[in-house]
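Input record, target 12 of the design panel.
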């Protein structure tokens, strides 16, 4: 059965602190990762293709992968976009229209460095370059922790504001912090989005819930061997012992059936 991966990035920039490094992939590492995808014969696909795949309307080949960026950091425009264009790689960026042109206040309050977010004009330029723009709410809120009415405003208004800003449909969503509940999921569906990305790891197969798509979290600290391992096993964690534990588990499960 065909399995599709979605990769999740945040910043593509030089980390300013050790704590930030997990969420901040250095541009040189990002270049290596995208070049390796092409060298390893991965097929880079768009988000619409992923949605059609999980719905069972198309069959994507093995080693299909889609690239996503959460939050809308300016480094995606400055550092990631040239690499994506060089390798002709589709991507989706989940933006925060209530924060456009501002900074990552939700991270700064947790003592991360303050970083610039994409302006309205930069978001338009990204869209013109073929990057799909999705919603990440208006202001990066924890959707299950606010009232259903407030959550609906964050979900519905962000779609409308982005569509007005870009002059094109905004059809895809990503849950801030990966947090959701059934009420939030239904609100996103009712608002007219065609998909929503979670932070659950794993592969996306036909029959998966399009509003709970799985993603692999690419850490800024990942070396190329860790990046490769994450894609091979469809997991957020990578270690030297991963192949051993993975295949030991498979053997144990096989004998457990007898």
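The sequence produced for target 12 reads:
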């Amino acid at each position: 059965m065909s399995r599709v991966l979605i990769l999740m990035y945040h910043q593509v920039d030089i980390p300013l602190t050790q704590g930030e490094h997990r969420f901040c992939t250095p541009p040189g590492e990002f270049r290596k990762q995208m070049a390796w995808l092409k060298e390893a014969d991965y097929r880079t696909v768009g988000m619409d293709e992923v949605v059609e795949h999980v719905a069972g309307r198309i069959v994507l080949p093995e080693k299909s992968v889609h690239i996503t960026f959460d939050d809308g950091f300016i480094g995606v425009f400055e550092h990631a976009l040239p690499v994506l264009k060089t390798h002709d790689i589709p991507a989706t960026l989940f933006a925060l229209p209530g924060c456009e042109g501002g900074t990552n206040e939700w991270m700064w309050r947790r003592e991360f460095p303050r970083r610039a977010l994409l302006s309205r004009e930069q978001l338009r330029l990204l869209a013109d370059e073929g990057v799909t723009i999705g919603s990440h709410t208006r202001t990066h809120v924890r959707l299950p922790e606010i009232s259903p009415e407030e959550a609906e405003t964050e979900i519905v208004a962000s779609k409308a504001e982005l569509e007005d800003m870009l002059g094109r449909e905004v059809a895809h969503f990503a849950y801030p912090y990966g947090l959701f509940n059934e009420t939030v999921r239904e609100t996103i569906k009712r608002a007219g989005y065609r998909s929503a990305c979670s932070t659950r790891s794993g592969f996306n197969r036909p029959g998966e819930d399009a509003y709970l798509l799985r993603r692999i979290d690419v850490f800024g600290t990942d070396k190329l061997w860790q990046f490769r391992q994450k894609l091979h096993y469809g997991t957020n964690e990578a270690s030297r012992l991963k192949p051993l534990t993975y295949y030991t588990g498979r053997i144990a499960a096989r004998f457990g059936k007898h």
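Residues 4-256 form a domain with the TIM Barrel fold (CATH 3.20.20.370).
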